[in-house]
Specification:
ABC_Transporter_VariousFunc; nucleotide-binding; alpha/beta; AAA+_ATPase; ATP-binding cassette domain-containing protein; Rossmann fold
Length: 209
Amino acid sequence: MQIEATGLGKRFQRDWIFRGLTRAFRPGSATAVLGPNGAGKSTLLNTIAGQLLPTEGALAYTLSGRPVAVEDVPQHLAYAAPYLELLEELTLLELLRFHTQFKPLQAGVSLERLIDIMYLEKGRHQLVREFSSGMKQRLKLGLALYAAAPLLLLDEPTTNLDATGVAWYQEHVEATRAGRTLLLSSNVPAEYSFCDEELLVTDFQTGKR
């Protein structure tokens, strides 16, 4: 999916989070959205995802040369963030079966294969609420990374992961990024070292331009 942001700005009450952002995000690109905590990285991702409406400017989406309406963006989007909730009253297998009805997996990836990829074999019939924070984060990432979605947004992807989990993330984000438009919000170099483009949110804040 290609995304064209033109003069994009978002304000909450009287405070501008970012303003004057003009940028193209193209298929096959991986962009690190950088800035200190509270700078507006997550707000920018949520605006690009169509979950927040911009205060000014415009976003245009195209897929295979055809325009995509903002209300249709979610069906082409995979998103992983620490604040996104899982259906914790389901078992892992139940959750995967439910989730993939709406967000199918990439070709050749079965539910059992995804469970193996996430190293969650022993939790197959366990309630998700009983998972550790690291297991839940691998689950969120696995669902996003292996979704059949051309737009991938990752917000602080290694939150709650130990060193082994970080290595797992690095391996699988590299394995699944080809051909997708990827935006990644972070201030941890290990999360975005593979990105070929960077966007510093503070460059688009009033008083700093």
